[in-house]
Amino acid sequence: MTGERRAPADVGPGAARATLPGPAEAPATPGGAPAAEGLRAPRPPRPPRDRYLDLLRAVALFRVVTYHTFGLSWLSLAFPALGVMFMMAGSLMARSLDRPALSVVRGRVRRLLPPFWFFALCVLPAMVLHGWGPPSSGAASWWGQLLFWVVPVGDLPRNAWGEQLVEPLWYIRAYLWFVLLSPLLLRVFRRYPLPTLALSLAPVVVLTVWQPDGPVAAVAVELATFLTCWLLGFAHRDGVLDAVRGLPMLAVAAALLALGAWWAFTHPDPAAGYDLNEIPLGQALWSAGFVLVLLRFRPTVGWLARVRPLDRAVTVLNSRAVTVYLWHEVALVVGVLVLDVLWNVPAVADHVPLGNQGVLFAVAWVLIVAAIALFGWVEDLAARRRPRLWP
């Protein structure tokens, strides 16, 4: 199955592509010689960041942490965070692929893997300390599966103790696969944009009917579930959606939302009920419709700059999105341990409702902020920027 994995209750408009100017003619000196050989025209200024997309990413990350804290299934309907995150990643990938594909893919992988490796260096020893190791039989397979902790293209091996910490990392795996497939996907999309979008739901329909099993099937279901959202990111970048009139777009979005809700409520998961994160076809349809509405009917967000604390929070969450996603489950687990200790402090236990999940939520965000300060610099190194304690 795909989607966010719920934690136990206690416990990442299109614009036309610019063409860089060619070499400028060097101005001649009075003697007829060039003033400066090899002079180039200045590069055009980089377009300003799309703060609407930044705001969406920040809301999506906040929603992911909220879901994993409270386990509220209706949040998957209220704001399908993973679909929104895949859409934004697809948009940024399409923008980057205006450059040579190999360098773009290499750069994206370079930005992703060092923070992931740093996380692995912390989590793997902790699992070993909690009894994880090669089995008495099949040890060669166990060691081979450890390679997925180097390049996360498959199901990450873990023990029961590390299940909660590792399970949400399916998103990292799916994102990496989408990055690797994007040069081909974008080429097909730009040649046949609307047919590609229309057919992008076919894989999840086929896999829902077929219901294959196994780790390879799990990856295929994840990619099929969010393929349409990724392609909608391409459409956003290339301005395809802007060419469609508002009423037809609204009709398509409404149909997708209605179909997604109908499928989810008629095919609930035996354990999770109506949680879209465990209903791939419902998730795919609902997320696609939701993302269409977000992209086609874009509100202005100029007000964000006037709300300085919120504007700053959006900036930090976007600058450290990988860190927040990797470490938020660790923050929840450590938060539970902190609250367990505080139960033994009468001055705190008598005045703070330590058993309330809202308290855990607040403690988790304090720990996430600490993780940003302690580990966020790895994202800077991965992006070849000067490491900063705080973005």
From TrEMBL:
Stretch list, region Disordered: 1-46
Acyltransferase domain: residues covered: 51-372
Keywords: Acyltransferase, Membrane, Transferase, Transmembrane, Transmembrane helix
Amino acid composition bias (Low complexity), ranges on this chain: 18-41
KW Transmembrane (keyword) present: yes
Ranges annotated as spanning the membrane: 76-94, 115-133, 168-186, 193-210, 216-235, 247-265, 285-305, 326-346, 358-378
MF annotations from Gene Ontology: acyltransferase activity, transferring groups other than amino-acyl groups
Glycoprotein found in the keyword field: no
Protein name: Acyltransferase family protein
Species this chain originates from: Georgenia ruanii
